[in-house]
Amino acid sequence: MGHCDALDSIFYTSTQSPIFSHFPIDFVQTCALGGVSQAPFTGCNLAYHTGDLAESVTTNRKHILRYFGENKQLLWCDQIHSAHIADATDPNIIHSLAAGTIQADGIICASPSHIALIMVADCNPIIIYSPQDNIFALLHAGRAGVCGQILTKGVEALAQKGVDSRDMYVFIGSSIRVCCYEISPSLARQIASAFGEKYIHTRNGSTTLDLVAMLQDECNALGIDKKHLEILDSCTACDERLFSYRRASKAQAQTGRFGILASLRH
Question: Could you give the count of Cα atoms lying within 13 Å of 41 in the half-sphere of its Cβ?
Answer without folding.
Answer: 22
